[in-house]
Amino acid sequence: MASAAEQLAANINFGAFAKATELKKRIWFTLGVLCVYRLGTYVPLPGIDPQALADIFAQQQSGILGMINIFAGGAVERMAIFALSIMPYISSAIIMQLMTSVSPKLEALKKEGEQGQKKINQYTRYGTVILATVQGYGIAVGLEGMTSSAGPAVHDPGYFFRLSTVITLVGGTIFLMWLGEQITARGVGNGISLIIFGGIVAELPSAIAATLELGRTGALSGLVIVAVGALALGVITFIVFIERAQRRIVVQYPKRQVGNQMYGGESSHLPLKINTPGVIPPIFASALLLMPVTIAGFSAGQGPEFLTTITAYLGRGQPVFYIIYASLIIFFAFFYTAVVFNPSDTAENLKKHGGFIPGIRPGQNTAEYLDYVLTRLTAVGASYLALISLLPEFLISKMAVPFYFGGTSLLIVVTVTMDTVAQVQSHLLAHQYEGLIKKSRLRGRRR
Fold first, then answer.
1. Angle at 399 (CA atoms; ends 397, 401), nearest 5 degrees
2. What is the pLDDT, as a whole number, of residue 167?
3. 76, 229, 257, 395: which has the fewest Cβ within 10 Å?
4. pLDDT tens-digit readout, 163-194
5. What does the pLDDT look like over 407-434, one tens digit per residue?
């Protein structure tokens, strides 16, 4: 069966794609939803002065606003209705995932299966609304206090502006959450991830144009531009290699005799990824590290003196920035891995189903062995995440390269692309299996 599946996967071509009408419908639906999302990033909030906002954002783009703007596809820079993007939903989902490991009630819901997962998803939506409301109100208040050489960012500040801004931003986030769920159900790939992917990729042409413009004016040499392009290809290859890498732990199942028949005796494997936490550690680390810089920018130099000192040490290109950034990524990598993977539960499940790791006793010894292997894998994965995240920072600070793809965004683009391609291949494989089943039935009827 495995060799047949591999042979079918190898024979997937454009001809098979042309015959898969259901897959084509799913792809067109996904592209249509992403077009709707991109249109929304150009619809501005009411009562905003675009010129003043552009001047202010140019000063704040090195802070957390710049990071959010990357994931929002430029919607923050234009202060569009999708300025919050899907980030409140992601934050709420991460919080719920963390809560399931500390709350017995939520942990019991998680073990109830599909019905419990529906309730957790509902709680996640409620959390999204709360987080989006708080963030929307903070943005409204912050916009009212912003001024530039072109004048204030808000034409008519007050409670009406705050209310309309909160309603618009929360509505935009809820609409994006619904679009993401529609893509997951009726399209191809994970909808939430594809929305972030679309926002990042949409700004890529302008980043390439800015780099080429620097080369034309002589600010960057042609050799540096070629080197950056080659480095980007090398980093993408490295990310693909690490994300596909697994440590496969052999699991053996004993033979069982039922009547005169022998069952079992099969061997399987438990796959452990090198990068179990994914892109969560860089996102958390960036948000925490850039928070003081953003607050100092909003205060326009009027804040406390210690905040100015911290901002100076945490500026991009400073040694303290690199050390703290890498340390936070490594910490969150180990922390989040401990949340999403419990060696004791895995060992207990293997014991219940009669599985065991050769050479390791079931139960506590298996849990300790899994914890030992996972710790070593996480150390490699955390180092990989730190390296990928710090590389663009070196390029920006040392070579003055407008490297739009930061480590986190590049990681998101590559992993989402891999996941989407895998789903397309699975659809094509299922389509070919259906064709083979129909042919076998027709041959059976002829006989």
1. 85
2. 94
3. 257
4. 999 999 999 999 999 999 999 889 888 888 88
5. 677 888 888 888 888 888 887 777 666 6
DSSP secondary structure, 316-340, as one string: TT-HHHHHHHHHHHHHHHHHHHHHH
Two tokens at 236? 């993408």
CA–CA separation, 162 and 142 (whole Å): 10
Determine contact, residues 385/412, Cβ cutoff 8 Å. Answer: no
- Please give the Cα distance from 193 to 423 (Å, whole number): 13
**Cα atoms found within 13 Å of the Cα of residue 354, Cβ hemisphere only:** 9
Query: Residue 306: which residues within 8 A CB-CB, separation 6 or more?
Result: none
- Give Cα separations from 228 to 16, 131, 216 (angstroms): 37, 38, 16
* Phi/psi-derived region of residue 219, left when phi > 0, alpha when psi is between -120 and 50, beta in every other case: alpha
Q: Are 20 and 427 in contact (CB under 8 A)?
A: yes
By CB neighbour count within 10 A (0-12 exposed, 13-18 middle, 19+ buried), where does 319 fall?
A: exposed
pTM of the model: 0.77
